[in-house]
Design goal:
The protein is α+β, with helices and mostly antiparallel strands and 427 residues long. The protein folds into two domains: 200 residues, Metalloenzyme, LuxS/M16 peptidase-like (Cytochrome Bc1 Complex, Chain A, domain 1, 2-Layer Sandwich); 180 residues, Metalloenzyme, LuxS/M16 peptidase-like (Cytochrome Bc1 Complex, Chain A, domain 1), CATH 3.30.830.10. 42% of the residues lie in helices and 19% in strands. Strands 1-2-6-3-5-4 form a six-stranded mixed β-sheet, with helices on both faces. A five-stranded mixed β-sheet has the order 7-11-8-10-9, sandwiched between helices. Helix 9 crosses helix 15 and helix 11 packs across helix 15. The model has no long low-confidence stretch (mean pLDDT 94).
């Protein structure tokens, strides 16, 4: 059969997505291990996940400092020895912390997994938090904070979550310059002791996993409990959203203004989450969205504008974000509210909905390609206590959502009176 390159290939809709599910195991000391064995390369990624994100800290900077300083020295190795040792075996190690969780991730060739995990065991169990490393870390972070504090987009991001959740809420609390002088090494060590231990650890392993992976993990972190075992709990704290709708932080020398519009909303456990994601995509969730078409393509006010729904373990929020020329800030806000009003008052036409529907499903299909992506998909439900049926329900909601349902969602959740507006720059 001759390929006719003058004709576009037939368009096919996605009817079903089968996702390889993670398998659950337990080490001898009770640590849960979830494995996704897939791929052709002899590589393994092992993630050690702790409930040690910023939600669990009583003071800003503590969670991130504890996480980042873990690899700066142990009872047997200096920071350089750890770095050189892991690098010698062609492995890669990184620490990360977000609002809810802290993660230590190792990427290793399977044949050197034992040697690499030796260093990770040291980092997990025996960090020493050297004072000189703490001082250097704090000095560097403070300098970076001061530099970023001059940027309108950074100021807008920091202030926006304060407005949504309240300045004392774990999701809203912002780092102030004076916080760097308040943080002590003892606070960092105390946070490590209370959050980094075997009863607060979950492991996710992905890649072409060796058959004896569980035996290897048991040898390094699973034979006995480690750390100071204690409950890790944090009471649910209600957001204290500002009652003032419009906010402005003036930066007289700003060439551009950072704009944020949004509200506290739900996370992915809410039944409206799936269909609202379609609504959000239409508004500002992809390059062909209404906000991009209007404000970038037609008006030329910005290089980019987008909207999103951030899902946190104990809350969530909707946001619209952009940076525009200071002279068109008010015009941009007018167009944003115009597009939101259209969603409330006019049903989305069938062709646009079908385009977005297929875009969302296509993005989902791309997001489950490969073992690491499959592991990320698993973590996205595990963090919220959800099962794999979540993806079936998501798929079904995207396939069946109607223009009338989208309009009803817009009227429920996108009323202008409920949206917080923040401008940093000129107005």
């Amino acid at each position: 059969m001759t390929l006719n390159r003058k004709e576009a290939p037939a368009f096919k809709t996605i009817d079903k997505i089968a996702i390889q599910q993670a398998e659950h195991h337990r080490l001898d000391n009770g640590i849960s291990v979830y494995t996704v064995s897939s791929g052709s390369q002899e590589l393994t990624k092992i993630e050690f996940i702790f409930k040690a994100g910023m939600y669990y800290q009583d003071q800003t900077l503590v969670a991130s400092a504890a996480n980042n300083l873990l690899e700066t020295g142990t009872k047997s190795y200096t920071a350089n020895q750890i770095s050189d040792g892991i690098d010698f075996y062609g492995s890669f190690f990184e620490c990360a912390v977000d609002q809810d969780y802290a993660t230590l991730a190792l990427f290793s060739l399977n044949k050197y997994l034992d040697q690499s995990l030796h260093f990770v065991e040291e980092i997990l169990k025996y960090p020493t938090f050297p004072k000189d490393e703490f001082d250097i870390y704090l000095s560097n972070k403070k300098q970076k904070h001061l530099v970023n504090s001059q940027k309108v987009n950074v100021l807008a991001r920091r202030r926006f979550t304060e407005l949504l959740f309240g300045e004392d809420h774990p999701y809203g609390r912002d780092v102030k310059t004076e916080d760097f002088d308040r943080l002590t090494l003892d606070q960092v060590k105390a946070f490590y002791r209370s959050h980094y231990h075997s009863s607060n650890c979950t492991i996710v392993a992905s890649g072409k996993l060796p058959d004896n992976l569980l035996d290897i993990l048991n040898r390094f972190v699973g034979q006995a409990t480690w750390g100071e075992i204690q409950p890790v709990e944090k009471a649910l704290i209600a957001p204290e959203t500002t009652s003032q709708r419009q906010h402005f932080i003036e930066k007289p020398d700003a060439i551009q203004s950072a704009v944020r519009v949004g509200r506290v909303l739900f996370n992915k456990k809410d039944p409206d989450y799936f269909k609202f994601q379609v609504l959000n995509t239409i508004l500002g969730g992809y390059f062909g969205s209404r906000l991009m078409t209007n404000i970038r393509e037609d008006k030329g006010y910005t290089y980019g504008i987008g909207s999103g729904l951030s899902s946190l373990v104990n809350s969530g929020y909707f946001f619209i974000s952009t940076e525009v020329g200071a002279d068109v800030t008010n015009n941009t806000l007018e167009e944003i509210y115009k597009e939101i009003k259209l969603l409330r008052e006019e049903p989305v036409d069938a062709e646009e909905l079908e385009t977005v529907r297929n875009y969302v499903l296509g993005q989902f299909l791309r997001s489950v390609d490969g073992p690491y992506a499959l592991a990320d998909k698993f973590k996205a439900i595990w963090e919220f206590g959800l099962g794999y049926d979540y993806f079936d329900r998501y798929f079904e909601a995207v396939k069946t959502v109607t223009p009338q349902e989208l309009m009803a969602l817009a009227n429920t959740y996108l009323q202008e009176k409920d949206l917080i507006e923040l401008v940093v720059g000129k107005k």
